[in-house]
């Protein structure tokens, strides 16, 4: 069974693709294939980064808290390195226009934040509610044990 964070990430990725296709089409129409391709590349790197975040969340819940924290730290550094290398090398080599590529990458993060925030809040509220109910049950058991 797929976790809630994976469903959220794939749903967000789908919406990002749906929203970015018209932008790429406009770039293709007005500026040509090079700009549209650079934009699509930036969107692709942004989507890889988004899905790697979901992978990190999956790996965080390992056998120990310290191992989870190390995985999270390594994943963050790796994700930043991927973005820097995947965007910086083509920009440095002048393979295609930089602005559409960075616009695609930044667009993914903008849409990701707009789309994921309500779902993330819902997931965190559900967890908080479960924890509060568990604490109430434990308190009721303790009160019964005192009598």
Description:
- This protein is an all-alpha fold and 147 residues long.
- It has four helices and no strands.
- The longest helix is centred in the last third of the chain and has 49 residues, at 98-146.
- The protein is elongated, with a radius of gyration of 21 Å.
- The N and C termini lie far apart (43 Å).
The string of secondary-structure elements, in order, is HHHH
Oligomer kind: single chain
Question: What's the gyration radius in Å?
Answer: 21 Å
Mean pLDDT: 86
Poorly predicted runs of 5 or more residues: none
Reported for the largest beta sheet, the result is: none
Please estimate the helix content. Answer: over 70%
DSSP strand tally = 0
Structural class: mainly alpha
Tell me the number of helical segments per DSSP (H or I, 4 or more residues long).
4
Measured between the Cα atoms of the first and last residue, the distance is 43 Å
The percent range for strand residues is: under 5%
CA-based shape: elongated
Describe, in short, the structure shown.
The protein is mainly alpha-helical and 147 residues long. Helix content is 91%, strand content 0%.
Keywords:
91% helix, 147 residues
SSE diagram, text form:
Blueprint: H1 4-31, H2 33-60, H3 65-93, H4 98-146
Helix pairs in contact: 1-2, 1-4, 2-3, 2-4
